[in-house]
Amino acid sequence: MPSERLTMVRGMGFLFAAGATLTLITLLLPGAGHRSELPLALAAAASYCVAGGLLAFEERVAPAALHALLAFGSLLVTLCVVVGGGAGTGYALFYVWVALYAAYFMRPRAVAAHTTLAGALAGLAFVVQDDIRAPAPHWVMGVGTAAVLAMLVNRLARSMRGQRSDLATAAALTGDPGALEGFRERVCERLRRATRADAVALLEWPAGGGGLAVSSVAGEDLPAALGEPWGQIALERCLAEGRPVVILTSDSPPGSLRLLHRSVAGLAEPVLSDGVAVGVLAVAWRRPRRAMPQRTAGAAFILASTTGRLLERLERLNRDRARRALEINDAIVQGLVVIKYAMAAGNVTEAARAVDETLEAARRLVTAQLDEVAAGGVRPGDLVRGGARS
Asked: Which of 39, 65, 229, 266 matches a 20 to 30 Å C-alpha distance to 258?
């Protein structure tokens, strides 16, 4: 997104400027030992130039340029380590900055590439540097710290972006007047992509009774776990209790959430409408997991809540349609009754007046419905009364 790209550019500019400032501060400190101050000052100047260029042309910086500049930053850090004398291990901490920046803003492959490059350059610098005592332990601890933090931060950042994407989808669905058209399919497909599940199904309780029925599904086929007895029990328990239920494989102990073997086959998330469970949003995998991923649980909760709100809106809309259909029916029927009695009494004037009033009432009510049809809120067959009226 453009806003995130600007954050990436400004964040990199800040890191270059902060690194240059810290480097210049170290030049003012005594006791660094055998350091070359001129190369360090030049590295700081180059960092300031990069920071200034990023801030001056932040709107034009391409993503590929950020990768190149991050690699250039690793080279500058390597220069500082090599010429830093006894303070070389201190400058090596900048490699952690490289790894953390990549982990937060970039994809896993790019994170691995930049972290590997930083680790290789650090190893080269420690080999060339003569003033660092026990370079191997320093390298292992430094690169290991950078790699571990990069994995953690990248995972957290991806989870945060995924949740933000789910919330954006929920906001788009609930804020779109035309979202009721095919919202079940959109919710299931969105959840399947977010969780990387083999299938996602929305099961609803039919108005006429009976068991849970699939109203929408995303994925080629539903995994067998949903059709097995233990899967059905989990779905029915989710609907009855109104809380999430983890779907386990048949050989898993009841209530077990995290086992040493693969046991989690899916998740059943209740869909609440007006506080009552009216359906289940089920996520399923063909190959069971060892535990329920947090990303799956969060996405299922958000999209199940969105589905419940959309079902509430659909129910209110259906009630309004039924009421307006009843108004049209009653206006015409009552007018016809008046016309009938007026004609039977031989009062042609009263009958003509009743015809005009009936037509006007019908025209007004039908026009309102046609306006809603033009807006996409009503489809053919929606305006049907619940039953006949005598």
From this structure: 229
